[in-house]
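quick q for whoever's on today - can somebody do inverse folding on this one?? i tried earlier but teh output was garbage lol. tokens:
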């Protein structure tokens, strides 16, 4: 396991993808800060050219709880795309670069290889989530958000971590798609299809029964008039994650790798 982890970390370190994901979450945190800055004073925002003369943003507050909620919503929606790209790259690159056969020829159990890839995925996404929180603290302090307290910060971090955990769990089927599709294309197609369906099904009011809609519902993205996911929704998230991870392990263990 140590050797497999070292190899996966080495691949990630030599890739540009970690820097791309860092940049993506930096932009997300900065955009959230911009929204808070605008909400603080709409007149000032118009004077600075941040809003058109007829544009307005209503129904929001510019304080720490609102900012932490906005960051959690960003992770719930955009995080699936970024976390999904991480999973697709970690599993699909072996086929895209023709290294799958060499990897499977090593004296390392296939289940260990899969576990190492998932472990690197989890750590990678955790670091991105913590980066978002730290950037959020810096940006919120810079623009002078109100409502700060250690309890608010702790609750914001807890919500961010819970949303990120659910989002990462829901990316495991993409690992199976990248493996069975022997590359990136199939998995990317599945990822965008799931993102589209999660929006449509949530709008129809059945998001609590579609696992990929659950993280967004948990953050309150659908609005206060919509109930949270409930036990069934959270259970479906867990079952989806287990099924994706288990299915990926079985595919790597039994699928024909010749050709």
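ok took a stab at it. sequence:
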């Amino acid at each position: 396991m140590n050797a497999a982890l070292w190899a996966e970390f080495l691949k990630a370190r030599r890739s540009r993808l970690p820097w791309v994901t860092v940049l993506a979450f930096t932009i997300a945190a900065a955009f959230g800060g911009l929204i808070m800055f605008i909400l603080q004073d709409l007149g000032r925002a118009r004077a600075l050219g941040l809003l058109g003369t007829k544009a307005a943003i209503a129904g929001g507050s510019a304080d720490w709880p609102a900012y932490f909620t906005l960051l959690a919503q960003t992770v719930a929606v955009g995080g699936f795309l970024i976390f999904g790209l991480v999973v697709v790259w970690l599993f699909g690159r072996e086929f895209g670069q023709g290294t799958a056969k060499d990897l499977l020829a090593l004296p390392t159990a296939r289940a260990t290889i899969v576990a190492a890839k998932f472990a690197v995925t989890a750590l990678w996404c955790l670091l991105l989530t913590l980066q978002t929180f730290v950037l959020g603290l810096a940006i919120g302090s810079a623009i002078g958000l109100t409502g700060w307290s250690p309890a608010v910060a702790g609750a914001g971090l807890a919500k961010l971590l819970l949303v990120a955990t659910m989002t990462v769990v829901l990316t495991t089927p993409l690992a199976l798609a990248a493996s069975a599709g022997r590359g990136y294309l199939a998995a990317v197609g599945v990822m965008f299809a799931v993102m589209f369906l999660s929006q449509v099904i949530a709008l129809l009011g059945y998001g609590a029964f579609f696992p990929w809609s659950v993280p967004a519902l948990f953050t309150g993205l659908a609005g206060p008039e919509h109930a949270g996911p409930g036990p069934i929704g959270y259970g479906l998230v867990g079952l989806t994650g287990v099924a994706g991870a288990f299915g990926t392990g079985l595919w790597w263990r039994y699928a024909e790798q010749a050709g």
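fwiw The radius of gyration is 20 Å. also DSSP finds eleven helices and no strands in the chain. so keep that in mind when u check it
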